[in-house]
Design goal:
142 residues; single chain; mainly alpha
Amino acid sequence: MEGLGLPYVIGPALGLGVPGILFVVWYFGQKAQDKTLLAYREDTKDILSTIATQILTLQQEHRNEILKLQVNHQEQVRAILADYKADMVEQRRRYDNNVLLVKNYQELCSNLKDIVILNSSGFQKLADDINRKCAALREAKL
């Protein structure tokens, strides 16, 4: 009936009466609705296909961005660890220098102790000599 024109369908439908006219109107309305529904489905399919393609593209871009961020993060961690290692080497060097400084300071203190002891003993001998000579001079004056 789709290929038939409206005058060829209305003539026999008028012979069927009101139910026949209602059937013809319903039938052509249904055909138009089916065409609209088919066009809607095709449009929806095209839209969904486009959206799916966009989603896949965005997912790939997101994956690439994540990979870039991971590489950047790894580089930052490597740089931080390299800085930390350099700081630890510097700290070790300073510790070793401090140990050497303490040893040298202890040696210096030991040498100064010996000098102080020698000076004290020299001053004690000098004081004893002065006391003896002064005592001898005092006795000589008396």
